[in-house]
Amino acid sequence: MDVSEFREFGKAVVDHIADYWESLPNRHALPVVKPGDIAKSLPSKAPVKGEHWEEILKDIDSIIQPGLTHWQSPNFHGYFPSGHSFPSIVGELLTAGFGCMAFNWMGSPAGTELEITMMNWLGQALGLPQYFLNCDEGPGGGVIHGSASEAVLVALLAARDKTLNSFINKQNGVRRSNLRENLVAYTSDQANSCIEKAAKIASVTIKQLKTHNCQLRGSTLRDEIFKDKANGFVPCIVIATMGTTGTCACDCLDEIGQICKEENIWFHIDAAYAGSAMICPEYRPFMGGVELSDSINVSPHKWMLVNYDCTATWFRDHRYVIDSIGVKRVYLDDQSSEYGIDYHNWQTPLGRRIRSIKLWFVLRSYGIEGIQRYIRNHVALAKYFEQLVNTDSRFEVCSSCMGLVSFRLKRRNSLTELLLKTIIDDGKYYYTPYKIGNKFVIRFAVCTRITKSEDIKNAWNAIVDYTNTMQWDLNG
Ligand code: PLP
């Protein structure tokens, strides 16, 4: 493909994306396909001769689009938002167009320096402590990771090695391998699955502590640390959540942070979804205690209009990250050390795209006020849904925070399970399940940029209709 063909192909694809967006309000959230349908429509081998782009694009229409789950449809309310906006798509396109590998400064000076600046812009916009910013004089700093999973893993590795090194320095003769076995990390029983996965990768025992109303309290953490220390365990990190996946609950960050400070334990906050709301000053009280944290991750690719992948992670002292996972090679030495940041040593892969372009485009196109409007609108839409649920005495709201509401039919779990199955089988709407204690609930997340109050009302009316037509034993 030459440049002139690329122009045609690229323009056709932009039109295609625009058409797709115009069609989204009328699309069902789920595709009408059975497992294996898409794979069956594809040839079993790659073509020997190259094909024209028009042929390829036709198959997007006939094979791929019919098999998409429409995360950007206003009828999609599953999981959390998959961040998306036109400036961000264009930023992605440019990143791919430039095709740079910005793993060190020389790999693309603009990549490193734009990222440093964006992490300062974003950190300031979210009201984070100054010590996290690259522009502060201290050893703090921010980086863009691919995902919250990567951010948590990097924080866990840094905390693990910081703890090991400080113990070995204090206790002469103690064997690193023996000490490693005794390390323990803490999180809550509501924490995202990625935290358990990070602990598995890092070979650190993780304790998922019991919550009250889905929140981890300081007293629970304190008791556990006390018991563990008495049994010879060595606490290395507490990973609290601000905005859990299940119900958007916020752990008691100030209580947890205080304990971490007293016990000299690394304190990380996973604010993958709800962290974006800190751009609105009225939500900052949820973040009380952040000034005690050692690291934090917020994912603009969830709730700040930036396409996946873009997780912003800040460290109080990035040198612990470098000590833990940093590597040196002659071929990576680019004489940029005086600039201070070689981002490949802040992440798990070596290669890195310039993700900061899409973040830059979003921050500039929307401005802080535009993003605030977007977040406030989602919260207002969720509140509206909560009010609608409260109008029907057959239902109860089980949790409501930010853009996420969970609800259920009163009485047996099996009724709510049947309701969810009926909705999903129909395919127009999509919701995900959760369990709060032993209550089975349906999570209703406001997900897309184009969701309007009529969509919320229609979704609720459909829930009522599904409920009315379900065959069940009302007396059960
Ligand atoms: N943390 C929380 C609170 C989440 O809700 C999620 C995903 O929904 C994650 C972490 C994992 O995010 P990622 O897919 O960016 O790794």
Automatic annotation (TrEMBL):
What GO CC annotations are associated with the protein? cytoplasm
State its cofactor.
pyridoxal 5'-phosphate
Write out the GO biological process terms: amino acid metabolic process; carboxylic acid metabolic process; catecholamine metabolic process
Which UniProt keywords are listed? Lyase, Pyridoxal phosphate
Q: Which residues carry this modification: N6-(pyridoxal phosphate)lysine?
A: K302
Query: Domain of life of the organism in this record?
Result: Eukaryota
**A single MF term (Gene Ontology):** pyridoxal phosphate binding
InterPro entries recorded: Aromatic_deC (IPR010977), PyrdxlP-dep_de-COase (IPR002129), PyrdxlP-dep_Trfase (IPR015424), PyrdxlP-dep_Trfase_major (IPR015421), PyrdxlP-dep_Trfase_small (IPR015422)
An example of a Pfam family matching this protein is Pyridoxal_deC
* Family recorded in the similarity comment: Belongs to the group II decarboxylase family.
Q: List the protein's name.
A: Dopa decarboxylase
